[in-house]
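Lab notes, practical 5.
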Amino acid sequence: MKKLAVLALVGLAAAVSARTALGDEKLAFKLDDKGNFVFDTGVVKGALVKDAAKAPGIKPISLVNPPVQIDNANGLLIPYRFLTPEKRFGVGAWEWPRTGKLLDDGSAQLTWLACQDRPFEVSVAYRFSAPDTLDATITFKAGCDLPKFELFVGSYFKAFPEARVYVKDAGEGKPGFLDAPKDKGAWHCFPKGDEVLPHIKDGRWKHPPYPLDWTFRPAFAAPLGMRRQPKSGACVLLMAPPQDCFALFMPEQAMGLGSLYFTLFGKDVQKGQTLVSHPRLVFGKNITDEQAVAKYQEYLKTLE
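Output from the prediction step:
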């Protein structure tokens, strides 16, 4: 009897552990009848294409209340430009074959394998850690030496015309959010500081397709940006680890593309080396500047 009781307790502990690892079942990605990943957290709902020759990031995705479409173009949190000073590898991960699988913690993981034109493997595991919070684990495995390598990640928003970044000096020497109006330039870069400018200016942004000239804006106080829809109040915060991210980028905020980008690593990578980063998106309505900063501070604690 004692043995049976112990086994029962072990089974119960395992079940509790599994539920704890998974968290709220409502937050887990699930396979639909078409073999794709779907989610409905009560705050946002949408889908993610599992296996495909070509497919976007998180797309479609919409707020539940108010019912507002969020995604545009290539979706959210999609690996985009893979850059060194001398080379750009392809266009973006949405053009490459990929496979997907569900992980035990409720994440949906996409993987793009290395090939002759891309001597690296990259994967992204998407996981809702709260109804309003989407975490991503980006893993990059180098198949060759890559000098001054960076991974540029894109998110595209539908009719979210207000775009801002949290900078060190938003006026009077105080930190705050600055927007990206057209009169300041067509393409805006908010760097970590002057020390990263030589990296950004080394010629990597001249590689086709879509070479760009950036207008340099004030340095960010944290890699924290937002897109907002003034009429509905819908808002999305984008945040990245300060040790990984060295710049935030966006077009002028009224541009229909509606994108917000962050770039990672910016360092020499050796063959066989693996790099990992953990960005986050937070979805909400009428998120104030103070609340946005507080949510970023909460995020930093998860990276410790």
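Observations recorded by the TA: The domain at 27-303 is CATH 2.70.98 (Beta-galactosidase; Chain A, domain 5). The chain has one domain: 27-303.
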